[in-house]
Amino acid sequence: MSASKNKLLTKNKIDEQFSVRLVCRNCRSDIPHIVEDFSSGELVCGDCGLVLGDRIIDVRSEWRTFADSEGDDPSRVGNTANPLLDGDQLDTVIGRGNGDMGLSKGLNRIQARTKEHKDEQALLHAYREIGALCDGFKLPKSIVDTAKQLYKKTLNMNLQSGRSFDAIIAVCVVLACRQGGAPRTIKEICAVTRVNVREISRTLKVLKTKLIPESSLTSSKDLIERFCSNLRLDAEVWRISRDMNEIAMDVPNISGKNPMSIAGACIYMASHLVNKGRSSKAISQVSGIGEATIRSTYKILYASRQQLLTPEIMKRNPNAQEKNLIVP
């Protein structure tokens, strides 16, 4: 007999020694027929009906419902924990019953007064406001969750004192958009909130370094693609605007200009360069930048057009003609 066969037989004998099998003491069959009756919690012999054990645990899926109305989730373990909320997050709510001499009403009143319950309600209210604001911009769920996490971080660091609730909500959405690669301007946020630009800017200046230390200002490069899309300009205009924007940072007298102003002026210049010009009014309506600001920034860029319109840009875009540019 081979060594591998001897090893297999030895292993089978060891398994037989340590294995436990439930056998009916009446039938003593080599192949016992044991039935698990979960309704009564008993182990029953399928041949003679002898009860061999009781109080067994039903490990199958729960299909019954213990809710007051049909169609509810049959699970009896409650919802999963929400990382954006604090406390035990128990779903039990004491109802205002009529019996027990008003005991239920009193317990319901006590539960409503608890600080933890009030804090959770305040958090849920803030999360609803953030969700509504993000829905207005059709932002993805990842950015919505980031904004909620930033708001919770603001509460944990006690940064909300002395500041407007609406301003904090707006700033959390602005920072979440920057982190998610879908920046929104402060003016765009102001258009759907009850806060003015000055208040959001002041709150943003304080919170951004504490919530996201590495957060930087919104670059004009991030805004050009969205502005071109809203103006129905093709990829050629977007490409020229992007390339000119990178060079424009080194143009004299441009430093200190708002990124949105630079983006608007680059789009204005690129659209006219390929004879698909958009007016300063149209760009102003899309970007929220004043027409006078766009024209003044364009005047600086036009004076440095030889630096902006490099041979590489002109070669890659055969439709680009310097003679199409409007003299400011």
Automatic annotation (TrEMBL):
Instruction: Give coiled-coil spans as residue ranges.
Output: none
The domain of life is Eukaryota
Please provide the record's keywords in A-Z order.
Metal-binding, Repeat, Transcription, Transcription regulation, Zinc, Zinc-finger
InterPro entries reported for this sequence: Cyclin-like_dom (IPR013763), Cyclin-like_sf (IPR036915), TFIIB (IPR000812), TFIIB_CS (IPR023486), TFIIB_cyclin (IPR013150), Znf_TFIIB (IPR013137)
PROSITE patterns the UniProt entry points to: TFIIB, ZF_TFIIB
Span of domain TFIIB-type: 20-53
Q: Name one GO biological process term.
A: RNA polymerase II preinitiation complex assembly
A GO cellular component entry from the record: nucleus
Quick check: keyword Magnesium in the entry? no
Q: Which molecular-function annotation in GO is an example for this chain?
A: TBP-class protein binding
Q: How does it assemble?
A: Associates with TFIID-IIA (DA complex) to form TFIID-IIA-IIB (DAB-complex) which is then recognized by polymerase II.
In UniProt terms, what function does this protein have?
Answer: General factor that plays a major role in the activation of eukaryotic genes transcribed by RNA polymerase II.
Q: Which family does it belong to?
A: Belongs to the TFIIB family.
What's the protein called, per UniProt? Transcription initiation factor IIB
Gene for this chain = SUA7_4
